[in-house]
Amino acid sequence: MQAFETAAVPAAAPAPTTLAYLPVGMFGSVMGLTGLSIAWRLAHGVLGAPAWIGQAIGIAALAAFVVLAIAYGVKAVSGFSAVRAEFANPIAGNLFGTPMISLLLMPFVLADFSLALARLSWVIGAVGMTLLAWAIVIRWISVRHTPTQVTPPWIVPVVGMLDVPLAVPLLQWDGLHGVMLFGLAVGLFFALPLLAMLLSRLIMEDPLPAPLQPSLLIILAPFSVGFSAYVATSGHIDGFAQGLYMIMLFLLPVLLGRLRHLPHCSPFKVSWWSASFPLAASAVAAMRYAAFDQGAVTEGLAILILAIASLVIAAFVVQTLVGVSKGKLRELS
Predict the structure, then answer these.
(1) Could you give the 3-state DSSP secondary structure of residue 49?
(2) Domain residue limits at 269
(3) Residue among 217, 225, 133 at smallest CA distance from 184
(4) How many domains are contained in the chain?
(5) What's the pTM?
C-alpha cells in the first residue's frame, strides 16, 4: 500500500552528512516503481505490451531499494536520534511502513532471480509490517491526537497489511492462506474508520498543506490494493471485488484533479512520491479487471490509468534524480 510527507519531523541534532535528512518515506519510490513494474507485467499478458518494460522497471525498483536500505542504514548508525524523532512524529512515523511494504512487493521482482530471496523478503516484510501495525495502533489508543494530525499517511502502517497477501501466490508455499486472510481482514477493517476520520478532517478542518496534497491519493489504496489483495486471497473476482474496483474508479478522477494543481502550489518534494504507489496499484487493479471483463471499455481504462501512472512516476524519477544530483536532498525532504 504506495511514499510520503516527512517534512514535519521534529528537529534533531543533524549528523555531519546529508544522509541525516534522508526521509524514510523515500522508500515510497520503491513502492511506486515496483507497483508500476507489476502493472506493466500484467499489461504484457493482457494487452501484449513488451515484457522488457516491466522487467526494466522492476530492476530499477530493486536497485533503488538496495541504495535506500544502505543509505538509511548509514543514517540510523550515524544519527539514530534523527530516526527516533522521525518515528515519534505523528505523521512521519506512519511512513516506516513504506520499507516494510517495499519488502512485501519485492518478491514480484526477486522471484525472477531467486525464489529463496523472494521468500525471505516477504517474510521480513510480513513480520515487520505486522509489528509496525501493532505499534501504531497502540500509539493511537495511548496518545491523544488532534484532528489536524489525521492525514493520509495514517493509512500506510495498518491498511498496509493489505499488501501481505499480494505476492504469496508467487512464493509456492502451502499453508499461508490464513496469513493472507489475516492481512486482508486487518487492512480492510482499519480502512473504514481511518477513511471516515480522514474525510471528517478534510471537510471540517483547514485544507492540507501543499506538500501533503499528493498524499491524498493514498485514499485510493484501500480500494486498489484491497481489490488485488482480495483477488489474490480468494482466487477469483466476485461482486465484492468488483465493488472495490468501482469505488477506485469513482475516486480516481477526484484525486487526480488535486494532483494537477501541485506544480503551481509547491516546489517538488519527496512527499510527492506518496502519489506513486496508489496510482501504480490502480493500474494493477485496472489490468486485472481488464483480464477478467474483456472489452474495449475496460481495456481502454486500463491503458489510460497505466499511462497516467507511468507519466507521473517518470516525472517524479526525473525530479528526484535532478535534486539529488544537485545535492538538494535536504530541500527535497
Answers:
(1) coil
(2) 18-332
(3) 225
(4) 1
(5) 0.90
